[in-house]
């Protein structure tokens, strides 16, 4: 199964980085679309602090936030919420976003000329609205990234457009350092570039890079359909590609990034690959598990991950994983892992530990469950409850 996973990665990378061939007459996305990545610090009500990493791609908002406040009658102990996904939209200078899968928790605000947001939060229709304020702030060990986006489509048959027409569609949103130099900026550029292109070369122009992605994808689509006359099975001639990056954490000198690449070349289902990278923003080093966990952590963490996988899937302790559709009875720690304010997540792509029909697995372990084997002096900021 590892061979199948490697072949899938190679296929996706090939479609992403093949030599670009320009096509004429393709109109780019509207320049009026709102696109940005921003790290916010702010206040919620009178006593809560909120932290958010917000991505806006063509007016659609996504990202993550958490809030914290002093425990009652305490001067040093804080209560932290969990990291909460958000979704919403921007219209002109107005923004509305919700906690993911919780439409009753609604933030409504106004974005000023500097990108800062003020508004009100309604936890539910029955609760009193609370004011909130979010300011763009990279002062607490965070790092700015610029959002580069592209969305376009190429119709195969002149005059035949719309959802039912043979076409190739591309949607890209990548994050990249801009106008920065030094070891941290260079390290981020090199690592992000290698994830996006599969090569150990720094992307010099993100705008040109994503334009080349589009040109190549459309050229490959056109070449693959040359000579075909029967397009009645439209689904076989609808190609799609997407590359989306997100920031999972950007604070306390730690940045955690997610890269998701999806390709469909007319098959029954898309091929998707998700990867992650974590940086020490003090020196630009890409972090591994060895950098923040004590020696001998592997077996302990593996037990936690396997126990959580069983809990997520309702599998009893004495039941072999292989009897529930997994390839093996004990899974190893994934090389694709991420951090947020709550803990560490291990991500398993399609075919990595189970067949495609089982989907992907995202196994999250809170800091409190493995605090005894975090190295001293590392992650002093985390909530270990």
From the structure above, extract its key features.
Lipocalin, 4 helices, Heat Shock Protein 90, eight-stranded antiparallel β-barrel, five-stranded mixed β-sheet, alpha+beta
Quick overview of this protein structure:
The protein is an alpha+beta fold and 385 residues long. The chain has helices at residues 2-17, 183-197, 206-224, 297-313; strands spanning 36-44, 48-57, 60-70, 78-80, 84-91, 94-99, 102-111, 117-122, 130-136, 146-155, 167-176, 238-251, 254-265, 271-280, 337-339, 343-348, 361-366. The chain has an eight-stranded antiparallel beta barrel. A five-stranded mixed sheet has the order 10-11-12-13-14, covered by helices on one side.
Report on this model:
The protein is of the alpha+beta class. The chain has 3 domains: 2-31 and 143-280, Fervidobacterium nodosum Rt17-B1 like (Heat Shock Protein 90); 36-136, Lipocalin (Beta Barrel); 289-373, Heat-shock cognate protein, ATPase (Actin, Chain A, domain 4). The protein contains 4 helices and 17 strands. It has helices spanning 2-17, 183-197, 206-224, 297-313, and strands spanning 36-44, 48-57, 60-70, 78-80, 84-91, 94-99, 102-111, 117-122, 130-136, 146-155, 167-176, 238-251, 254-265, 271-280, 337-339, 343-348, 361-366. The strands form 3 sheets. Strands 1-2-3-5-6-7-8-9 form an 8-stranded antiparallel barrel. It has a 5-stranded mixed sheet with strand order 10-11-12-13-14, with helices on one face. Strands 15-16-17 form a 3-stranded antiparallel sheet. The protein is globular, with a radius of gyration of 23 Å. Mean pLDDT is 89; it is low at 13-31.
């Amino acid at each position: 199964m590892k061979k199948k996973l490697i072949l899938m990665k190679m296929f996706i990378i090939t479609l992403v980085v093949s030599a670009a061939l320009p096509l004429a007459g393709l109109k780019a996305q509207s320049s009026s679309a709102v696109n940005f990545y921003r790290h916010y610090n702010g206040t919620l009500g009178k006593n809560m602090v909120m932290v958010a990493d917000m991505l806006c791609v063509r007016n659609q908002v996504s990202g993550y936030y958490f809030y914290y406040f002093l425990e009652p009658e305490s001067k040093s102990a804080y209560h932290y919420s969990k990291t909460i996904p958000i979704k919403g939209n921007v219209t002109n200078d107005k923004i509305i976003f919700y906690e993911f899968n919780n439409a009753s928790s609604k933030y409504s605000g106004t974005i000023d000329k500097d990108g800062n947001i003020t508004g009100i939060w309604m936890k539910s229709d029955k609760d009193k609205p609370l004011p909130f304020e979010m300011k763009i702030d990279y002062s607490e060990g965070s790092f700015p990234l610029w959002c580069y986006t592209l969305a376009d489509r190429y119709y195969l048959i002149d005059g035949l457009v719309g959802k039912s027409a043979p076409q190739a569609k591309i949607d890209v949103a990548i994050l990249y350092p801009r106008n920065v130099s030094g070891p941290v900026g260079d390290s981020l550029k090199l690592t992000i570039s290698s994830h996006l292109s599969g090569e150990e070369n720094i992307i010099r122009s993100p705008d040109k890079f994503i334009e080349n992605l589009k040109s190549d994808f459309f050229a490959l689509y056109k070449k693959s359909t040359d000579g075909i006359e029967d397009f009645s099975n439209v689904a076989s001639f609808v190609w799609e590609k997407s590359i989306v990056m997100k920031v999972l954490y950007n604070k306390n000198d730690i940045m955690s990034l997610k890269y998701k690449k999806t390709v469909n070349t007319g098959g029954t289902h898309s091929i998707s690959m998700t990867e992650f990278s974590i940086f020490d923003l003090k020196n630009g080093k890409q972090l591994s598990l060895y950098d923040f966990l004590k020696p001998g952590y592997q077996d302990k963490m593996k037990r936690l991950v396997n126990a959580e996988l069983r809990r997520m899937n309702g599998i009893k302790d004495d039941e072999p994983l292989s009897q529930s559709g997994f390839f093996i009875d004990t899974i190893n720690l994934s090389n694709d892992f991420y951090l947020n304010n709550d803990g560490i997540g291990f991500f398993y792509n399609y075919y990595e530990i189970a067949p495609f029909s089982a989907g992907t697995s995202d196994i999250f372990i809170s800091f409190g469950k493995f605090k005894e084997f975090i190295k001293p002096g590392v992650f002093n900021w985390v909530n270990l409850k």
